[in-house]
Amino acid sequence: MRSQLTSVRPPVGIRAGARGPAPSDQQGEDVARDRLELVPVLPDGWRMRDRSHREADASGLLGFAQTAGTGVDVVWLTPVPSTEHFQSLDELIAAATARCATRPA
């Protein structure tokens, strides 16, 4: 059975960083979110990267995500290799944004 989320694509702003003005109390989160890049590598999968690192810098690679069943499965490469399942792409984006926020730029 194919995933119901296979047609989900990350918001354009995640890859391109095109975002409108944000409330000042969310400024730190917005900076971290602007650092997050989701690059499609499969019809239902993405490579996650911290854009504050050069594209050729492997330390900027956060992990890989793919829709699976009723959510999104993730293989994190940093800070330690691990796997995680999220119920939605929004939950994944929030978790990846939090990881960017705790990493040095």
Walkthrough of the structure:
Helix 2 crosses helix 3 (89-102). The protein is α+β, with helices and mostly antiparallel strands. It is built from three helices and five strands; from the N terminus they run H-H-E-E-E-E-E-H. The model is unreliable at 1-30 (pLDDT under 50). It has a five-stranded antiparallel sheet with strand order 1-2-3-4-5. The chain has helices spanning 12-16, 27-35, 89-102; strands at 36-42, 45-50, 61-68, 71-76, 82-86. It starts with 11 loop residues before the first helix and ends with a helix.
Short description:
The protein has 105 residues and is an alpha+beta fold. Helices cover 27% and strands 30% of the residues. The longest helix has 14 residues, at 89-102.
